[in-house]
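Today's session is about reading a structure prediction critically. Students often jump straight to the picture, but the first step is always the sequence itself: look for stretches that repeat, for charged clusters, for runs of hydrophobic residues. Only then move on to the predicted structure, which in these notes is written as discrete structure tokens rather than atom positions. Here is the chain we will use throughout the hour.
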Amino acid sequence: MKIPYFRSQIEKLTAEGGKLRTDASGEVANQDVHLPGILPKVPGRFYYYFGKPIETEGRKQELRDREKCHELYLQVKAEVEKCLAYLKEKREKDPYRNILPRLLYQARHGFTSEVPSFEP
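Below is the predicted structure for this chain, in token form.
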């Protein structure tokens, strides 16, 4: 609505369109039509990392204690956060993160070749 061209287009579209909320009054009845902008998102790269397994076998009795259960929760949470931080760091340093470098790599090496990933 802040861009004059779009404001006039939205007002025109609202005036031409039928009123959907005929039984409403006030602000609800006077809402403008807002169509979503259609801009496709360029596909990104997915990053996966599987952290070390956290053993819970044999801890059934121990995990009935609320405090011990909370300790395990904090351990799992810390491990997941560590893995996510690692992936974010690797993503920032990835030379093939954007689609253009990946397409250029495949154009040079053949479209069936896999774009290199980072080494863990």
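Discussion point for the tutorial: DSSP finds three helices and no strands in the chain.
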